[in-house]
Write a structure and sequence with these properties.
Elements: E1 2-5, H1 11-25, E2 29-33, E3 41-43, H2 57-70, H3 75-80, H4 89-97, E4 104-109, H5 115-118, E5 139-146, E6 149-156, H6 167-183, E7 187-191, H7 212-221, E8 227-231, E9 234-236, H8 241-245, E10 248-252, E11 257-259, H9 263-270, H10 276-280, H11 282-289, E12 294-296, H12 299-310, H13 336-339, H14 350-354, E13 364-366, E14 374-381, E15 384-391, H15 402-417, E16 422-428, H16 435-439, H17 442-455, E17 460-469, H18 472-475, E18 485-488, E19 493-495, H19 499-512, H20 517-535, H21 537-542, E20 548-549, H22 555-565
Parallel strand pairs: 1-2, 6-7, 7-8, 8-10, 9-11, 10-12, 15-16, 16-17, 17-18, 17-19, 18-20
Antiparallel strand pairs: 2-3, 4-5, 5-6, 13-14, 14-15
Helix pairs in contact: 6-7, 15-17, 19-20
């Protein structure tokens, strides 16, 4: 809109006129002074337009109801939280999502769930009963910005009937999961639940759209988007399945537990007397069951762990994991050769080797106390997230036990689901033998590790660091398992079994027939030397069993180039519904 004013109007007057008319009429305005061809001032309408209208008492009443809901369950339960060392759920959400632009709650769904059952403003409630407060039905769900990433979240309110699950809370949980399937965004489960609300189970336990649907949806989300669970209290029965269905589970020291039944129920059913920590605390699940990936010191540490974890993961399957700015390794790769001993049975810490391969301060180990003879960790190599499966010679000589095989299989499977390349660092005498491991299903769990390695279609690089004996070379991404490269260090050996075992298996009778101890020792040494020459990495390279022998100082550079070159490979598996191993 053009407005013309007299010659005597000043520039300030023209600006004032432009602003006033634009705001009043809601259109763009240009003001011309006298016969000037160019406008002296221009303005756009300033929205929202001011008027004399504002919120009514009805809105104020709604805000008061919302504030009451945000206050959580009965005050007596809120007062106990500090004694238990944990935050009120709303304070917990502030810790997670209260950091300005990068972290904030975008919106919440279902605040008014169960409102008519407890709130004094509801026509169905005659009198407020603080002991029966059910804000949100004890479950919070919504969407948030978390360190620059959009996520879905759910969080139990432990002040509402110990975070137990009932009909409307279940409905909110299911909706959140189903929306995550549509959006393809990660899901955070902040769990603090005593399980199903037994006295109100009608209508949610066995229904088609009841609590059982949680685990159906977990299964559908598995491998579709990252599911990360943090436990803040004793999660019992049905509540304990969400953590084990999640891709990653973090327990909080001195606070978390999960078990199929409470200690009271265990005593009733089995007669065993046990406390919650010994039944299902962090020590149990981080060291013995393998159900916990990490244990946090406190609530703030738990958030830090999840924040770091997400930097290695894409939002959904099919996306490339986020790449960071490349950084040199923490220690000089020139020291690699001095770390790896020449003797195949002498231990060393594979994490020291990894610190000379991976970008500085990028090693993020999962399940460090479970199956510790295999290290499973996310790292960055030249800024690219990479999953590492490495034998650990300081633990059980790097032999693969059932728990380590299962841990590795699950890690490989997860990396493959989220397009994270795999690096195998092989230094193992193979799968452990003996009656104990047979009873613990070494064949079954070893099979799962081999299957996961076989089925993974992400880029794979395998390094023969030192010994690669028996079926260990199969599980650790050997030549037959479609890696993009198998490269060796000069300390490498590949064989059915190690020299000592091989000589004992083949030449035991011949050696026993030699009476002179010195002559027998000399014969053993000669046989051992001949055997090691036959399995030496140079023989393997000469016969093109492996692709290349690399000077240890060049290993980091070699892996950077190989992962970069093979970053966009296409692999496929046979057309089938799915395998039958996992």
């Amino acid at each position: 809109m053009h407005v013309h004013v007299g010659d005597e109007a000043t520039a300030e007057e023209a600006e004032a006129i432009a602003s006033a008319v634009a705001t009043h009429l809601g259109v763009e305005v240009s003001v011309f002074v006298g016969d000037d061809e160019k406008p002296a001032a221009a303005a756009e309408p300033q929205y929202p337009l001011s008027d004399d209208r504002g919120p009514t008492d009805r809105e104020q009443s709604l805000r008061e109801e919302i504030d009451d809901i945000l206050d959580g369950g009965p005050q007596k339960y809120k007062a106990r939280l500090p004694e238990q060392g944990k935050l009120f759920v709303r304070d917990r959400l502030d810790l997670w999502f209260g950091d300005a632009e990068d972290s904030r709650i975008k919106f919440e769904d279902g605040k008014f769930a169960a409102f008519d059952e407890w709130h004094p403003n509801s026509p169905e409630v005659d009198e407020a009963d603080d002991g029966n407060r059910l804000p949100g039905d004890g479950l919070l769900t919504g969407a948030a910005r978390f360190d620059g990433r959009d996520v879905h979240f759910m969080a139990n309110d432990f002040t509402v009937k110990a975070g137990s699950m009932a009909r409307l809370g279940v409905e909110k949980f299911l909706r959140m999961q189903q929306r995550a399937l549509k959006t393809g965004k990660p899901v955070l489960y902040l769990m603090d639940s005593s399980g199903g609300r037994i006295d109100q189970q009608t209508g949610f336990f066995a229904n088609r759209e009841g609590i059982g649907k949680y685990y159906y949806n977990h299964s559908m989300l598995s491998g579709r988007v990252p599911q990360i669970c943090v436990l803040y209290g004793p999660c019992i029965a049905g509540a304990a399945y969400t953590p084990v269905f999640a891709d990653f589970t973090i327990m909080v020291e001195g606070m978390s537990a999960m078990a199929i039944a409470s200690p009271r129920m265990v005593k009733m059913v089995t007669g065993e007397e046990i406390d919650m920590a010994d039944l299902g605390g962090p020590e149990v699940h981080a060291r013995h069951s393998g159900s916990a990936d990490l244990v946090a010191r406190d609530e703030e540490h738990a958030r830090q762990l999840v924040s770091t974890l997400l930097t290695y993961l894409p939002d959904q399957a099919g996306q490339t994991p986020p790449r960071s700015k490349p950084r040199p390794p923490k220690h000089d790769p020139a020291g690699i050769d001095s770390i790896v001993p020449a003797e195949p049975n002498r231990p060393y810490d594979v994490l020291e080797l990894l610190e000379r391969i991976a970008d500085a301060n990028s090693i993020f180990e999962l399940k460090p106390d479970y199956g510790s003879e295999i290290v499973t960790a996310f790292v960055r190599i030249d800024g690219r997230p990479t999953g590492v499966v490495a034998n650990q010679p300081t633990a059980r000589s790097g032999a693969i036990f059932p728990d380590a095989a299962e841990k590795a299989a699950e890690f490989i499977w997860t990396c493959d689901a989220y397009e994270i390349p795999l690096l195998y660092l092989c230094d193992t005498p193979g799968f452990m033998a003996g009656s104990a491991v047979e009873k613990d299903a070494i064949l079954e769990k070893g099979k799962k590790m081999i299957y996961a390695t076989s089925s993974a279609t992400v880029p794979k690089q395998t390094v023969i660091v030192r010994k690669a004996y028996g079926a260990g070379i199969y599980a650790m991404g050997g030549p037959a398992y479609d890696p993009e490269s198998v490269i060796g260090l000069p300390s490498g050996e590949i064989a059915i079994m190690g020299p000592e075992a091989a000589i004992n298996a083949v030449y035991a009778r011949k050696l026993e027939s030699i009476d002179d101890p010195e002559e027998r020792a000399q014969m053993e040494a000669e046989l051992r030397a001949a055997y090691r020459e036959d399995i030496d990495i140079h023989r393997m390279a000469s016969e093109v069993v492996i692709d290349e022998i690399v000077p240890p100082s060049d290993l980091r550079r070699e892996l950077v180039e190989r992962f970069d070159f093979y970053r966009s490979i296409e692999k496929s598996i046979p057309d089938k519904k799915h395998g039958t191993v996992l």
